[in-house]
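Troubleshooting: if your tokenizer reports a length mismatch, compare your output against this known-good record of 197 residues.
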Amino acid sequence: MRGSATGRLLNDPKGGSFWFDAGAICLDFAHTGGEGQYAVFESLHRPADLGEWLAAPPLGVVVSVPVSAGELTAAKTLRQAIWEVAHDRAAGRPLTATAVATINQAATPAPLLPALAADGTTAEWASPVSATQALSTLAREMIELLSGPLAERIRECASDNCPLVFVDSSRPNARRWCAMERCGNRHKLRALRARRA
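Known-good structure output:
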């Protein structure tokens, strides 16, 4: 991946926003919307929305061919598969076979290829750049995450009503919340009220 930082600003449809760092770009991508009850969080409505998400840091993918409706559909299918297997791993369940197959299929096209920029000190993505390559790169990152040393550190937020998943890359392996300023503070406030009661 081009940048080392991860994380995105998530917006609550009821108002407000917060910074959420899932610890992997593929998991950040899994939180761009969803199916069923998570459809209210959808941020990828048009192909251009996918292009804008990919262009934002840390991925910084500026596609040289406009994102197609088919690529948007493929992106949402991959996103759902990443969401499912991340929750499976966090819960200690066997991975959903259809989701694994979807991720493997998305990883088969050529991924993004890094190239040294003309200044000789920065990297960019070798042209031409397509959304399909970016999706392949995200799928490959998920494969590496699930098969690597951080697989056992994929967690779901400890809040009772927060389904966000993340990689706990903290040294003590003690991260419990999607974000301290959101669910962590809510938990502290509830605990304080309980003690006072």
